[in-house]
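Subject: complex prediction, re-run

Hi both,

The earlier run crashed halfway through, so I resubmitted it with identical inputs.
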Amino acid sequence: MRLARGALQAPLVLLACLTVLVLATAQWTLPLPYNPIMPGAGPPLRPPSAAHWFGTDRFGFDLFSRTLAAGSRDIPLAISGTLVSALAGVPLGLLAVTRGRAGELLMRGLDAFQAFPLVVLAVAVVALTGNRLENVVLAIAIINVPRFMRLVRAQGLSIREARFIEAAQTYGASWLRILLRHVLPNVYGVVIAQCSLTAAHSIVVIAALSFLGIGISPPAASWGSMIQAGAQNMATGQWWVVLFPGLAVLVTVASLNAIAEAFDRRLAQ
Amino acid sequence: MDPTFLRLIGLRLLAIPLSLLVVATFAFALVALIPGDPAVQILGQFATPEELDRLRAELGLDRTAAERYVIFIGHLLEGDLGTSFQSRRPVLEEIGRHLPATVELVVLATFGAVAIGLVMGGIGAWYRGRWPDRVASGGITLFQSIPDFLLALLLIFALFFVLRLVPPPVGRLGFGASAPPAVTGMLLVDSLLAGQYATFRRVAAASLLPVLALSVVYSAYIAKISRTTISAALNSDQALYARACGLSEWKVFGYALKQARTPILTYGAILFGSLIGGAAIIETIFAWRGVGEWALKSMLTLDVPAIQGFVIVAGAITLVLYLVLDILVLLLDPRIRLQ
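This time it finished cleanly. Structure:
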Protein backbone atom coordinates (compact mmCIF):
# COMPACT_ATOMS: atom_id res chain seq x y z
CA MET A 1 0.00 0.00 0.00
CA ARG A 2 2.90 2.34 0.80
CA LEU A 3 4.12 1.64 -2.71
CA ALA A 4 0.79 2.66 -4.20
CA ARG A 5 0.67 5.88 -2.19
CA GLY A 6 4.20 6.79 -3.19
CA ALA A 7 3.51 6.25 -6.88
CA LEU A 8 0.32 8.26 -6.71
CA GLN A 9 2.01 11.29 -5.19
CA ALA A 10 3.41 12.47 -8.50
CA PRO A 11 0.79 14.88 -9.87
CA LEU A 12 1.24 13.66 -13.43
CA VAL A 13 0.45 10.11 -12.40
CA LEU A 14 -2.61 11.27 -10.49
CA LEU A 15 -3.76 13.07 -13.63
CA ALA A 16 -3.17 9.90 -15.66
CA CYS A 17 -5.25 7.82 -13.22
CA LEU A 18 -8.05 10.40 -13.30
CA THR A 19 -8.06 10.52 -17.11
CA VAL A 20 -8.41 6.75 -17.37
CA LEU A 21 -11.10 6.69 -14.70
CA VAL A 22 -13.14 9.46 -16.37
CA LEU A 23 -12.84 7.89 -19.84
CA ALA A 24 -13.74 4.47 -18.45
CA THR A 25 -16.94 5.62 -16.77
CA ALA A 26 -18.04 8.62 -18.90
CA GLN A 27 -21.07 6.87 -20.33
CA TRP A 28 -22.62 6.50 -16.89
CA THR A 29 -21.24 9.51 -15.02
CA LEU A 30 -21.20 12.34 -17.56
CA PRO A 31 -24.27 13.76 -19.29
CA LEU A 32 -23.65 12.91 -22.97
CA PRO A 33 -25.14 15.58 -25.30
CA TYR A 34 -26.52 12.98 -27.77
CA ASN A 35 -27.38 9.30 -27.80
CA PRO A 36 -24.05 7.70 -28.83
CA ILE A 37 -25.67 4.87 -30.81
CA MET A 38 -28.25 6.97 -32.63
CA PRO A 39 -27.33 7.85 -36.24
CA GLY A 40 -28.55 11.17 -37.57
CA ALA A 41 -27.88 13.12 -34.36
CA GLY A 42 -26.71 15.85 -36.72
CA PRO A 43 -26.03 16.37 -40.44
CA PRO A 44 -23.40 13.92 -41.79
CA LEU A 45 -19.66 14.69 -41.90
CA ARG A 46 -19.69 18.12 -40.30
CA PRO A 47 -16.50 19.51 -38.70
CA PRO A 48 -16.39 20.30 -34.96
CA SER A 49 -18.85 23.03 -34.00
CA ALA A 50 -20.66 24.35 -30.93
CA ALA A 51 -23.46 21.81 -31.41
CA HIS A 52 -21.14 18.86 -32.12
CA TRP A 53 -17.84 19.41 -30.32
CA PHE A 54 -15.99 16.63 -32.16
CA GLY A 55 -18.08 16.93 -35.36
CA THR A 56 -20.16 14.16 -36.92
CA ASP A 57 -19.30 11.16 -39.09
CA ARG A 58 -20.91 10.08 -42.35
CA PHE A 59 -23.88 8.53 -40.53
CA GLY A 60 -24.46 11.69 -38.54
CA PHE A 61 -23.31 10.13 -35.25
CA ASP A 62 -22.27 12.75 -32.68
CA LEU A 63 -18.56 11.97 -32.31
CA PHE A 64 -18.16 13.56 -28.87
CA SER A 65 -20.84 11.37 -27.27
CA ARG A 66 -19.57 8.38 -29.20
CA THR A 67 -15.91 8.83 -28.22
CA LEU A 68 -16.87 8.98 -24.53
CA ALA A 69 -19.25 6.03 -24.79
CA ALA A 70 -16.58 3.97 -26.59
CA GLY A 71 -14.18 4.50 -23.68
CA SER A 72 -16.73 3.02 -21.29
CA ARG A 73 -16.66 -0.12 -23.40
CA ASP A 74 -12.97 -0.38 -24.37
CA ILE A 75 -11.31 0.45 -21.05
CA PRO A 76 -13.35 -1.95 -18.85
CA LEU A 77 -12.82 -4.62 -21.52
CA ALA A 78 -9.06 -4.04 -21.47
CA ILE A 79 -9.01 -4.09 -17.67
CA SER A 80 -10.99 -7.35 -17.48
CA GLY A 81 -8.61 -8.93 -19.99
CA THR A 82 -5.67 -7.73 -17.91
CA LEU A 83 -7.15 -9.06 -14.65
CA VAL A 84 -7.86 -12.47 -16.20
CA SER A 85 -4.26 -12.57 -17.53
CA ALA A 86 -2.83 -11.68 -14.11
CA LEU A 87 -5.08 -14.08 -12.20
CA ALA A 88 -4.01 -16.94 -14.47
CA GLY A 89 -0.42 -15.90 -15.11
CA VAL A 90 0.75 -15.10 -11.57
CA PRO A 91 -0.10 -18.52 -10.01
CA LEU A 92 1.31 -20.34 -13.06
CA GLY A 93 4.49 -18.28 -12.83
CA LEU A 94 4.81 -19.04 -9.11
CA LEU A 95 4.40 -22.74 -9.85
CA ALA A 96 7.11 -22.55 -12.50
CA VAL A 97 9.46 -21.24 -9.77
CA THR A 98 9.17 -24.45 -7.76
CA ARG A 99 9.48 -26.79 -10.73
CA GLY A 100 13.02 -26.19 -11.97
CA ARG A 101 13.52 -28.19 -15.19
CA ALA A 102 9.86 -28.43 -16.17
CA GLY A 103 9.57 -24.69 -15.64
CA GLU A 104 12.56 -24.09 -17.89
CA LEU A 105 11.06 -26.25 -20.63
CA LEU A 106 7.68 -24.52 -20.33
CA MET A 107 9.25 -21.08 -20.63
CA ARG A 108 11.19 -22.18 -23.73
CA GLY A 109 7.91 -23.23 -25.33
CA LEU A 110 6.32 -19.91 -24.43
CA ASP A 111 9.26 -18.02 -25.99
CA ALA A 112 8.44 -19.47 -29.40
CA PHE A 113 4.81 -18.51 -28.88
CA GLN A 114 5.76 -14.91 -28.10
CA ALA A 115 7.40 -14.53 -31.49
CA PHE A 116 4.08 -15.02 -33.25
CA PRO A 117 2.37 -11.80 -34.37
CA LEU A 118 0.06 -11.14 -31.44
CA VAL A 119 -2.64 -9.09 -33.13
CA VAL A 120 -3.01 -11.79 -35.78
CA LEU A 121 -3.24 -14.39 -33.02
CA ALA A 122 -5.94 -12.35 -31.28
CA VAL A 123 -7.87 -12.07 -34.56
CA ALA A 124 -7.60 -15.83 -35.08
CA VAL A 125 -8.85 -16.60 -31.57
CA VAL A 126 -11.85 -14.26 -31.75
CA ALA A 127 -12.68 -15.12 -35.37
CA LEU A 128 -12.60 -18.84 -34.62
CA THR A 129 -14.36 -18.80 -31.22
CA GLY A 130 -17.10 -16.41 -32.26
CA ASN A 131 -17.59 -12.67 -32.33
CA ARG A 132 -18.38 -12.12 -28.64
CA LEU A 133 -17.00 -9.87 -25.92
CA GLU A 134 -15.87 -12.69 -23.63
CA ASN A 135 -13.80 -14.04 -26.52
CA VAL A 136 -12.00 -10.70 -26.78
CA VAL A 137 -11.12 -11.06 -23.09
CA LEU A 138 -9.97 -14.63 -23.82
CA ALA A 139 -7.78 -13.42 -26.70
CA ILE A 140 -6.15 -10.78 -24.48
CA ALA A 141 -5.55 -13.40 -21.81
CA ILE A 142 -3.94 -15.83 -24.27
CA ILE A 143 -1.57 -13.09 -25.40
CA ASN A 144 -0.67 -11.89 -21.91
CA VAL A 145 -0.65 -14.90 -19.60
CA PRO A 146 2.85 -15.90 -20.81
CA ARG A 147 4.15 -12.39 -20.06
CA PHE A 148 2.91 -12.52 -16.46
CA MET A 149 4.33 -16.02 -16.08
CA ARG A 150 7.75 -15.00 -17.34
CA LEU A 151 7.81 -11.90 -15.14
CA VAL A 152 6.72 -13.67 -11.94
CA ARG A 153 9.07 -16.58 -12.59
CA ALA A 154 12.07 -14.33 -13.18
CA GLN A 155 11.30 -12.32 -10.06
CA GLY A 156 10.56 -15.46 -8.04
CA LEU A 157 13.80 -17.17 -9.07
CA SER A 158 15.86 -14.24 -7.83
CA ILE A 159 14.00 -14.22 -4.50
CA ARG A 160 14.27 -17.98 -4.08
CA GLU A 161 17.94 -17.66 -3.16
CA ALA A 162 17.26 -15.05 -0.46
CA ARG A 163 18.14 -15.62 3.20
CA PHE A 164 14.57 -15.34 4.47
CA ILE A 165 13.44 -18.19 2.20
CA GLU A 166 16.25 -20.31 3.58
CA ALA A 167 15.13 -19.34 7.09
CA ALA A 168 11.55 -20.34 6.33
CA GLN A 169 12.79 -23.70 5.02
CA THR A 170 14.77 -24.36 8.20
CA TYR A 171 11.69 -24.03 10.41
CA GLY A 172 9.86 -26.43 8.12
CA ALA A 173 7.48 -24.17 6.18
CA SER A 174 5.71 -25.97 3.34
CA TRP A 175 6.51 -24.89 -0.23
CA LEU A 176 2.96 -23.55 -0.58
CA ARG A 177 3.42 -21.37 2.49
CA ILE A 178 6.78 -20.13 1.20
CA LEU A 179 5.25 -19.24 -2.14
CA LEU A 180 2.24 -17.43 -0.70
CA ARG A 181 3.78 -15.76 2.36
CA HIS A 182 7.32 -15.04 1.23
CA VAL A 183 7.55 -15.00 -2.57
CA LEU A 184 4.18 -13.54 -3.56
CA PRO A 185 4.44 -10.31 -1.47
CA ASN A 186 7.76 -9.63 -3.17
CA VAL A 187 6.36 -9.81 -6.69
CA TYR A 188 3.32 -7.56 -6.09
CA GLY A 189 5.08 -4.41 -7.25
CA VAL A 190 6.24 -5.71 -10.63
CA VAL A 191 2.86 -7.38 -11.18
CA ILE A 192 1.01 -4.09 -10.66
CA ALA A 193 3.39 -2.28 -13.03
CA GLN A 194 2.92 -5.07 -15.57
CA CYS A 195 -0.88 -4.84 -15.19
CA SER A 196 -0.77 -1.20 -16.19
CA LEU A 197 1.42 -1.97 -19.22
CA THR A 198 -0.82 -4.88 -20.20
CA ALA A 199 -3.93 -2.70 -19.96
CA ALA A 200 -2.23 -0.14 -22.24
CA HIS A 201 -1.32 -2.82 -24.76
CA SER A 202 -4.81 -4.33 -24.52
CA ILE A 203 -6.35 -0.97 -25.45
CA VAL A 204 -4.29 -1.08 -28.66
CA VAL A 205 -5.23 -4.72 -29.34
CA ILE A 206 -8.94 -4.03 -28.77
CA ALA A 207 -8.72 -0.99 -31.05
CA ALA A 208 -7.04 -3.13 -33.72
CA LEU A 209 -9.69 -5.86 -33.36
CA SER A 210 -12.63 -3.50 -33.59
CA PHE A 211 -10.91 -1.65 -36.45
CA LEU A 212 -11.27 -4.96 -38.28
CA GLY A 213 -14.88 -5.28 -37.12
CA ILE A 214 -14.09 -8.07 -34.65
CA GLY A 215 -15.64 -8.28 -31.19
CA ILE A 216 -17.94 -5.35 -31.87
CA SER A 217 -21.57 -5.30 -32.97
CA PRO A 218 -22.69 -2.06 -34.64
CA PRO A 219 -24.03 0.45 -33.77
CA ALA A 220 -22.20 0.04 -30.43
CA ALA A 221 -19.22 2.40 -30.28
CA SER A 222 -15.58 1.41 -29.93
CA TRP A 223 -12.52 3.54 -30.62
CA GLY A 224 -11.19 1.10 -33.21
CA SER A 225 -14.46 0.90 -35.14
CA MET A 226 -14.79 4.69 -35.03
CA ILE A 227 -11.29 5.06 -36.49
CA GLN A 228 -12.21 2.51 -39.16
CA ALA A 229 -15.41 4.41 -39.99
CA GLY A 230 -13.34 7.52 -40.66
CA ALA A 231 -10.41 5.82 -42.42
CA GLN A 232 -11.70 6.60 -45.92
CA ASN A 233 -12.34 10.22 -44.94
CA MET A 234 -8.66 10.84 -44.16
CA ALA A 235 -7.84 10.81 -47.88
CA THR A 236 -10.65 13.29 -48.57
CA GLY A 237 -9.86 15.69 -45.74
CA GLN A 238 -12.42 14.99 -42.98
CA TRP A 239 -9.77 14.55 -40.29
CA TRP A 240 -12.02 14.85 -37.23
CA VAL A 241 -13.70 11.45 -37.64
CA VAL A 242 -10.39 9.65 -37.01
CA LEU A 243 -8.58 12.24 -34.90
CA PHE A 244 -10.82 12.34 -31.80
CA PRO A 245 -11.20 8.61 -31.13
CA GLY A 246 -7.51 8.34 -32.07
CA LEU A 247 -6.56 10.95 -29.48
CA ALA A 248 -8.68 9.09 -26.92
CA VAL A 249 -6.66 5.90 -27.59
CA LEU A 250 -3.41 7.86 -27.44
CA VAL A 251 -4.25 9.60 -24.16
CA THR A 252 -5.45 6.38 -22.51
CA VAL A 253 -2.42 4.34 -23.59
CA ALA A 254 0.01 7.13 -22.63
CA SER A 255 -1.69 7.46 -19.20
CA LEU A 256 -1.50 3.74 -18.50
CA ASN A 257 2.16 3.68 -19.64
CA ALA A 258 2.92 6.62 -17.34
CA ILE A 259 1.34 4.81 -14.37
CA ALA A 260 3.43 1.72 -15.13
CA GLU A 261 6.61 3.79 -15.37
CA ALA A 262 5.88 5.52 -12.05
CA PHE A 263 5.55 2.12 -10.37
CA ASP A 264 8.77 0.93 -12.00
CA ARG A 265 10.64 4.00 -10.78
CA ARG A 266 9.39 3.43 -7.23
CA LEU A 267 10.48 -0.18 -7.40
CA ALA A 268 13.92 0.76 -8.63
CA GLN A 269 14.47 3.04 -5.60
CA MET B 1 35.67 -22.52 -36.33
CA ASP B 2 35.95 -23.60 -32.75
CA PRO B 3 34.08 -26.75 -31.68
CA THR B 4 31.85 -25.09 -29.01
CA PHE B 5 30.50 -22.78 -31.67
CA LEU B 6 29.71 -25.63 -34.06
CA ARG B 7 28.15 -27.67 -31.26
CA LEU B 8 25.83 -24.81 -30.26
CA ILE B 9 24.73 -24.31 -33.86
CA GLY B 10 24.22 -28.07 -34.26
CA LEU B 11 21.96 -28.18 -31.20
CA ARG B 12 19.88 -25.33 -32.57
CA LEU B 13 19.57 -27.05 -35.95
CA LEU B 14 18.41 -30.25 -34.26
CA ALA B 15 15.74 -28.34 -32.36
CA ILE B 16 14.16 -26.94 -35.54
CA PRO B 17 12.21 -30.02 -36.71
CA LEU B 18 10.88 -30.46 -33.17
CA SER B 19 9.80 -26.83 -32.94
CA LEU B 20 8.14 -27.10 -36.35
CA LEU B 21 6.16 -30.09 -35.10
CA VAL B 22 4.95 -27.98 -32.14
CA VAL B 23 3.92 -25.18 -34.52
CA ALA B 24 2.10 -27.67 -36.78
CA THR B 25 0.29 -29.19 -33.81
CA PHE B 26 -0.76 -25.73 -32.71
CA ALA B 27 -2.07 -25.01 -36.22
CA PHE B 28 -3.95 -28.31 -36.20
CA ALA B 29 -5.48 -27.56 -32.82
CA LEU B 30 -6.81 -24.17 -33.98
CA VAL B 31 -9.81 -25.85 -35.65
CA ALA B 32 -10.79 -27.26 -32.27
CA LEU B 33 -11.42 -23.67 -31.12
CA ILE B 34 -14.43 -23.36 -33.41
CA PRO B 35 -17.48 -23.96 -31.20
CA GLY B 36 -20.30 -26.24 -32.35
CA ASP B 37 -20.18 -27.75 -35.82
CA PRO B 38 -17.29 -26.12 -37.75
CA ALA B 39 -18.98 -26.87 -41.08
CA VAL B 40 -22.07 -24.87 -40.08
CA GLN B 41 -19.90 -22.05 -38.68
CA ILE B 42 -17.89 -21.83 -41.90
CA LEU B 43 -20.69 -22.14 -44.48
CA GLY B 44 -23.35 -20.27 -42.53
CA GLN B 45 -26.90 -21.29 -41.70
CA PHE B 46 -28.19 -21.37 -45.25
CA ALA B 47 -25.91 -24.11 -46.57
CA THR B 48 -27.52 -27.22 -48.00
CA PRO B 49 -26.91 -30.61 -46.30
CA GLU B 50 -24.85 -31.77 -49.33
CA GLU B 51 -22.56 -28.75 -49.05
CA LEU B 52 -22.17 -29.37 -45.32
CA ASP B 53 -21.34 -33.04 -45.91
CA ARG B 54 -18.77 -32.17 -48.56
CA LEU B 55 -17.04 -29.68 -46.24
CA ARG B 56 -17.09 -32.15 -43.35
CA ALA B 57 -15.38 -34.69 -45.58
CA GLU B 58 -12.86 -32.07 -46.70
CA LEU B 59 -12.12 -31.11 -43.10
CA GLY B 60 -12.01 -34.82 -42.26
CA LEU B 61 -14.58 -34.35 -39.52
CA ASP B 62 -15.95 -37.84 -40.24
CA ARG B 63 -12.71 -39.29 -38.84
CA THR B 64 -11.30 -39.32 -35.31
CA ALA B 65 -9.00 -36.52 -34.18
CA ALA B 66 -6.00 -38.90 -34.06
CA GLU B 67 -6.54 -40.03 -37.66
CA ARG B 68 -6.95 -36.42 -38.77
CA TYR B 69 -3.73 -35.43 -37.03
CA VAL B 70 -1.72 -38.20 -38.70
CA ILE B 71 -3.12 -37.28 -42.13
CA PHE B 72 -2.45 -33.58 -41.49
CA ILE B 73 1.19 -34.18 -40.54
CA GLY B 74 1.57 -36.61 -43.45
CA HIS B 75 0.42 -34.02 -45.97
CA LEU B 76 2.67 -31.49 -44.35
CA LEU B 77 5.72 -33.73 -44.78
CA GLU B 78 4.88 -33.91 -48.49
CA GLY B 79 4.84 -30.11 -48.57
CA ASP B 80 1.08 -30.01 -49.04
CA LEU B 81 -0.65 -27.28 -47.00
CA GLY B 82 -4.10 -28.00 -48.42
CA THR B 83 -6.44 -25.96 -50.61
CA SER B 84 -7.93 -22.61 -49.65
CA PHE B 85 -11.73 -22.71 -49.27
CA GLN B 86 -12.07 -19.22 -50.72
CA SER B 87 -9.83 -19.22 -53.77
CA ARG B 88 -9.80 -23.02 -54.38
CA ARG B 89 -6.06 -22.78 -54.95
CA PRO B 90 -3.22 -24.51 -53.07
CA VAL B 91 -2.43 -22.60 -49.86
CA LEU B 92 1.31 -22.80 -50.54
CA GLU B 93 0.81 -21.09 -53.92
CA GLU B 94 -1.31 -18.35 -52.31
CA ILE B 95 1.34 -17.69 -49.68
CA GLY B 96 4.06 -17.66 -52.33
CA ARG B 97 2.08 -15.05 -54.24
CA HIS B 98 1.54 -12.76 -51.24
CA LEU B 99 4.76 -13.18 -49.28
CA PRO B 100 7.21 -11.14 -51.46
CA ALA B 101 5.22 -7.90 -51.04
CA THR B 102 5.21 -8.36 -47.27
CA VAL B 103 8.94 -9.13 -47.20
CA GLU B 104 9.60 -5.85 -49.05
CA LEU B 105 7.49 -3.89 -46.57
CA VAL B 106 8.94 -5.59 -43.50
CA VAL B 107 12.58 -5.29 -44.60
CA LEU B 108 12.17 -1.57 -45.26
CA ALA B 109 10.20 -1.03 -42.03
CA THR B 110 12.76 -2.91 -39.91
CA PHE B 111 15.66 -0.90 -41.30
CA GLY B 112 13.64 2.29 -40.89
CA ALA B 113 12.83 1.44 -37.26
CA VAL B 114 16.50 0.72 -36.50
CA ALA B 115 17.61 3.97 -38.15
CA ILE B 116 15.05 6.15 -36.34
CA GLY B 117 15.58 4.30 -33.04
CA LEU B 118 19.37 4.63 -33.21
CA VAL B 119 19.19 8.36 -33.94
CA MET B 120 16.72 8.99 -31.10
CA GLY B 121 18.55 6.72 -28.66
CA GLY B 122 21.89 8.23 -29.69
CA ILE B 123 20.62 11.76 -29.09
CA GLY B 124 19.27 10.68 -25.70
CA ALA B 125 22.59 9.14 -24.67
CA TRP B 126 24.79 11.96 -26.01
CA TYR B 127 22.74 14.72 -24.33
CA ARG B 128 21.75 12.65 -21.33
CA GLY B 129 19.59 14.68 -18.91
CA ARG B 130 19.61 17.80 -21.04
CA TRP B 131 16.75 19.12 -23.16
CA PRO B 132 17.45 17.14 -26.38
CA ASP B 133 17.28 13.97 -24.26
CA ARG B 134 13.94 15.06 -22.84
CA VAL B 135 12.56 15.85 -26.30
CA ALA B 136 13.73 12.45 -27.57
CA SER B 137 12.19 10.70 -24.55
CA GLY B 138 8.92 12.52 -25.14
CA GLY B 139 9.00 11.36 -28.76
CA ILE B 140 9.67 7.77 -27.67
CA THR B 141 6.71 7.87 -25.24
CA LEU B 142 4.48 9.21 -28.02
CA PHE B 143 5.63 6.56 -30.53
CA GLN B 144 5.03 3.88 -27.92
CA SER B 145 1.45 4.98 -27.31
CA ILE B 146 0.20 5.35 -30.88
CA PRO B 147 -1.28 2.36 -32.72
CA ASP B 148 0.41 1.91 -36.12
CA PHE B 149 -2.86 2.09 -38.06
CA LEU B 150 -3.77 5.41 -36.40
CA LEU B 151 -0.40 6.90 -37.32
CA ALA B 152 -0.82 5.61 -40.87
CA LEU B 153 -4.19 7.36 -41.21
CA LEU B 154 -2.82 10.62 -39.77
CA LEU B 155 0.07 10.42 -42.24
CA ILE B 156 -2.38 9.87 -45.11
CA PHE B 157 -4.16 13.09 -44.11
CA ALA B 158 -0.96 15.11 -43.69
CA LEU B 159 1.22 13.83 -46.54
CA PHE B 160 -1.43 12.92 -49.11
CA PHE B 161 -4.45 15.18 -48.53
CA VAL B 162 -2.72 18.35 -47.32
CA LEU B 163 0.76 18.25 -48.85
CA ARG B 164 0.13 15.95 -51.87
CA LEU B 165 3.61 14.50 -51.44
CA VAL B 166 2.60 10.87 -51.94
CA PRO B 167 0.12 9.06 -54.23
CA PRO B 168 -3.32 8.13 -52.83
CA PRO B 169 -3.50 4.91 -50.74
CA VAL B 170 -5.17 2.83 -53.47
CA GLY B 171 -2.55 0.13 -53.91
CA ARG B 172 1.09 -0.06 -54.84
CA LEU B 173 0.74 0.55 -58.58
CA GLY B 174 -2.28 2.80 -58.71
CA PHE B 175 -5.17 2.37 -61.13
CA GLY B 176 -4.53 1.04 -64.61
CA ALA B 177 -0.78 0.52 -64.26
CA SER B 178 0.53 -2.91 -65.11
CA ALA B 179 3.00 -4.77 -62.93
CA PRO B 180 6.54 -5.34 -64.15
CA PRO B 181 7.31 -8.93 -65.27
CA ALA B 182 7.50 -11.02 -62.10
CA VAL B 183 10.98 -12.28 -61.26
CA THR B 184 11.18 -12.05 -57.48
CA GLY B 185 7.56 -10.98 -56.90
CA MET B 186 8.86 -7.86 -55.17
CA LEU B 187 7.64 -4.86 -57.15
CA LEU B 188 10.55 -2.60 -56.20
CA VAL B 189 13.12 -5.15 -57.35
CA ASP B 190 11.20 -6.34 -60.41
CA SER B 191 10.60 -2.83 -61.76
CA LEU B 192 14.32 -2.09 -61.47
CA LEU B 193 15.25 -5.38 -63.15
CA ALA B 194 12.88 -4.60 -66.02
CA GLY B 195 14.27 -1.07 -66.27
CA GLN B 196 10.82 0.47 -65.69
CA TYR B 197 12.00 3.45 -63.70
CA ALA B 198 8.63 5.27 -63.75
CA THR B 199 6.98 2.23 -62.18
CA PHE B 200 9.79 2.03 -59.64
CA ARG B 201 9.24 5.65 -58.63
CA ARG B 202 5.49 5.08 -58.29
CA VAL B 203 5.96 1.97 -56.17
CA ALA B 204 8.61 3.65 -54.02
CA ALA B 205 6.35 6.67 -53.44
CA ALA B 206 3.46 4.40 -52.50
CA SER B 207 5.75 2.57 -50.05
CA LEU B 208 6.71 5.72 -48.18
CA LEU B 209 3.70 6.02 -45.84
CA PRO B 210 3.30 2.40 -44.73
CA VAL B 211 7.06 2.08 -44.19
CA LEU B 212 7.18 5.36 -42.27
CA ALA B 213 4.20 4.45 -40.06
CA LEU B 214 5.66 1.06 -39.11
CA SER B 215 9.22 2.39 -38.67
CA VAL B 216 8.19 5.22 -36.37
CA VAL B 217 5.94 3.12 -34.13
CA TYR B 218 8.40 0.25 -33.76
CA SER B 219 11.46 2.48 -33.35
CA ALA B 220 10.37 3.26 -29.78
CA TYR B 221 11.81 0.10 -28.25
CA ILE B 222 15.05 0.32 -30.25
CA ALA B 223 15.44 3.94 -29.14
CA LYS B 224 14.99 2.91 -25.50
CA ILE B 225 17.54 0.08 -25.52
CA SER B 226 20.07 2.02 -27.56
CA ARG B 227 19.83 5.00 -25.19
CA THR B 228 20.42 2.74 -22.19
CA THR B 229 23.28 0.75 -23.74
CA ILE B 230 25.05 3.70 -25.34
CA SER B 231 24.89 5.90 -22.25
CA ALA B 232 26.15 3.03 -20.08
CA ALA B 233 29.02 2.55 -22.53
CA LEU B 234 29.81 6.29 -22.54
CA ASN B 235 30.15 6.22 -18.74
CA SER B 236 32.21 3.02 -18.65
CA ASP B 237 35.88 2.69 -17.72
CA GLN B 238 36.78 1.89 -21.34
CA ALA B 239 35.32 5.22 -22.43
CA LEU B 240 37.24 7.00 -19.65
CA TYR B 241 40.45 5.32 -20.82
CA ALA B 242 39.74 6.18 -24.45
CA ARG B 243 39.25 9.83 -23.48
CA ALA B 244 42.41 9.76 -21.38
CA CYS B 245 44.30 8.53 -24.46
CA GLY B 246 43.12 11.66 -26.22
CA LEU B 247 40.52 10.14 -28.55
CA SER B 248 37.92 12.59 -29.79
CA GLU B 249 34.48 12.40 -28.24
CA TRP B 250 33.13 11.30 -31.64
CA LYS B 251 35.50 8.29 -31.69
CA VAL B 252 34.39 7.39 -28.16
CA PHE B 253 30.77 7.62 -29.25
CA GLY B 254 31.57 5.33 -32.17
CA TYR B 255 32.92 2.70 -29.78
CA ALA B 256 29.89 3.10 -27.53
CA LEU B 257 27.62 2.61 -30.54
CA LYS B 258 29.26 -0.76 -31.15
CA GLN B 259 27.99 -2.01 -27.79
CA ALA B 260 24.40 -1.46 -28.87
CA ARG B 261 24.64 -3.77 -31.88
CA THR B 262 23.73 -7.05 -30.16
CA PRO B 263 20.50 -5.86 -28.48
CA ILE B 264 19.52 -3.96 -31.65
CA LEU B 265 20.16 -6.98 -33.84
CA THR B 266 18.10 -9.14 -31.47
CA TYR B 267 15.15 -6.78 -31.37
CA GLY B 268 15.40 -6.13 -35.10
CA ALA B 269 15.05 -9.86 -35.79
CA ILE B 270 12.10 -10.19 -33.40
CA LEU B 271 10.48 -7.18 -35.07
CA PHE B 272 11.05 -8.61 -38.54
CA GLY B 273 9.45 -11.92 -37.56
CA SER B 274 6.43 -10.42 -35.86
CA LEU B 275 5.78 -7.95 -38.70
CA ILE B 276 5.41 -10.80 -41.24
CA GLY B 277 1.83 -11.06 -39.95
CA GLY B 278 1.80 -8.04 -37.68
CA ALA B 279 1.74 -5.51 -40.49
CA ALA B 280 -1.64 -6.90 -41.60
CA ILE B 281 -3.72 -3.83 -40.75
CA ILE B 282 -1.25 -1.47 -42.43
CA GLU B 283 -1.31 -3.73 -45.50
CA THR B 284 -5.11 -3.56 -45.51
CA ILE B 285 -5.18 0.24 -45.24
CA PHE B 286 -2.75 0.67 -48.16
CA ALA B 287 -4.14 -2.23 -50.27
CA TRP B 288 -0.66 -3.72 -50.19
CA ARG B 289 -1.77 -7.29 -51.08
CA GLY B 290 0.67 -8.83 -48.64
CA VAL B 291 0.54 -12.08 -46.75
CA GLY B 292 -0.72 -10.46 -43.54
CA GLU B 293 -3.70 -8.93 -45.32
CA TRP B 294 -4.38 -12.30 -46.94
CA ALA B 295 -4.16 -14.12 -43.59
CA LEU B 296 -6.48 -11.60 -41.98
CA LYS B 297 -9.05 -12.08 -44.73
CA SER B 298 -8.73 -15.86 -44.35
CA MET B 299 -9.35 -15.58 -40.62
CA LEU B 300 -12.43 -13.43 -41.03
CA THR B 301 -13.89 -15.95 -43.50
CA LEU B 302 -12.84 -18.98 -41.39
CA ASP B 303 -10.73 -20.32 -44.27
CA VAL B 304 -9.25 -23.10 -42.12
CA PRO B 305 -6.51 -24.49 -44.46
CA ALA B 306 -5.34 -20.94 -45.19
CA ILE B 307 -5.15 -20.07 -41.47
CA GLN B 308 -3.25 -23.26 -40.71
CA GLY B 309 -0.90 -22.70 -43.63
CA PHE B 310 -0.17 -19.17 -42.51
CA VAL B 311 0.54 -20.25 -38.92
CA ILE B 312 2.97 -22.92 -40.14
CA VAL B 313 4.77 -20.69 -42.64
CA ALA B 314 5.01 -17.78 -40.19
CA GLY B 315 6.30 -20.20 -37.53
CA ALA B 316 8.90 -21.64 -39.91
CA ILE B 317 10.11 -18.18 -40.95
CA THR B 318 10.43 -17.18 -37.27
CA LEU B 319 12.39 -20.32 -36.42
CA VAL B 320 14.87 -19.83 -39.29
CA LEU B 321 15.19 -16.16 -38.39
CA TYR B 322 16.03 -16.96 -34.77
CA LEU B 323 18.63 -19.49 -35.88
CA VAL B 324 20.32 -16.87 -38.09
CA LEU B 325 20.07 -14.40 -35.21
CA ASP B 326 21.73 -16.84 -32.79
CA ILE B 327 24.58 -17.47 -35.23
CA LEU B 328 25.13 -13.74 -35.79
CA VAL B 329 25.08 -12.98 -32.07
CA LEU B 330 27.57 -15.79 -31.44
CA LEU B 331 29.85 -14.42 -34.15
CA LEU B 332 29.60 -10.84 -32.92
CA ASP B 333 29.80 -11.42 -29.19
CA PRO B 334 32.56 -13.82 -28.13
CA ARG B 335 31.49 -13.53 -24.46
CA ILE B 336 28.47 -15.74 -25.14
CA ARG B 337 30.65 -18.44 -26.74
CA LEU B 338 32.83 -18.61 -23.66
CA GLN B 339 29.96 -19.33 -21.29
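Chain B touches chain A through 50 residues (CB under 8 Å).

- K.
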